[in-house]
Amino acid sequence: MGGKKSKKDKDNKRADKRAFDPAKPVEVAERLRLPAGPVHLSDLETGVLDFGPQSKTDAAEAMLHIGPRLAELQERLYAQATQGSRESLLLILQGMDTAGKDGVTNHVVGPVDPGGLELASFKSPTAEELAHDFLWRIRKRVPSAGRIGVFNRSHYEDVLIVRVHELVPKEVWSKRYALINSFERELVRQDVTVVKCFVHVSKDVQRERLLARLDDPTKYWKYNPADVDERGRWDTYQDAYAEALRRCNTVGAPWYVIPADKKWYRNWLVASLLEEKLAEIDPRFPPADYDIEAERRRLGES
After folding, report:
1. 3-class DSSP state of 141
2. pTM for the full model?
3. Other C-beta atoms within 10 Å of 132: how many?
4. DSSP 3-state helix, strand, coil percentages of the chain (rounded to 5)?
5. How far is CA 93 from the centre of its chain?
6. How far apart are CA 225 and CA 234, in angstroms?
7. Selection from 213, 207, 212, 104 nearest residue 153 by Cα
8. Are 49 and 90 in contact (CB under 8 A)?
9. Is 200 strand, coil or helix?
10. Across the chain, what does the average pLDDT equal?
11. Is residue 92 part of a domain?
């Protein structure tokens, strides 16, 4: 994600393109993981990377294979929790408006059994929520054992929109990075696999997507005139995101950068990342805690 590529790197990535098989899982985590150190969003790619599907058709075919694999992994995660496993997974989606957080939720986790999902979208806090610390409402929505949780926006709003709009003083929000890191370390100790995705859209593509909402009467409801005002704060948001990414990019809960200018590639990346992280958990169906043959006989006699 930046820096000059060697001839070997370029040759390897050309081979990646030729070798892409829509039916096979692809490990993407290390390629998407944000490196430690200073963050310059302008250096992070928003288009199609040179691995994985290079066309919408290939991505669509790959998603047909990923969906059933995700569904099985989720079922195994849920099943092993019935025998006492604490493992769960939390997918955190952050990004500018139109980056596609809703699209990821619909297309990536849509095939998974709803009974194994816990979805949360954090909007402006209520009066009750404001009466508590900023993580109070977040803690209440952490996924329980065996579930996949999805945060469409998250606790990071309290160092993003809160900072950009100066909703609280700097001495308040500036202390929240450390509190967020502490909270996420706590989640990891509780066997929650934290997968944080910065869904990264370019300013030009954001304009195209906002204009598209005005061109389609079925999308008018999605358009908010305030979105144009927020675009006027683009650079301020970029600075806020850069600091949040840099300061909360930890070993246990790193950030993954998801290029979002192409919806089909964005969805494939998040789906592949989610599959990889669930496979690392390696959930197992629990063995029977009863005599299988005895139960066969009982059923045969019933």
Report:
1. coil
2. 0.91
3. 12
4. 55, 10, 35
5. 4
6. 15
7. 104
8. no
9. strand
10. 93
11. yes
Alpha-carbon distance values, 204 to 34, 87, 231, 246 (Å): 23, 40, 11, 24
> How many Å apart are CA 74 and CA 143, to the nearest integer?
13
Residue 55: count other Cβ atoms within 10 Å of its Cβ.
Answer: 13
Q: How many domains does the chain have?
A: 1
Residue 200 lies in a domain: yes
Cα dihedral 182/239/142/172 (nearest 10): 60
Question: Please, which residues bridge with residue 33 across strands?
Answer: 256
Q: 155 and 105 in contact (C-beta within 8 Å)?
A: no
Helix (H) or strand (E) holding 216: none
CATH of the domain at 212: 3.40.50.300
pLDDT in tens, 2-49: 445 555 555 555 544 557 999 999 999 999 999 999 999 999 999 999
Tokens 């070798």 belong to 19
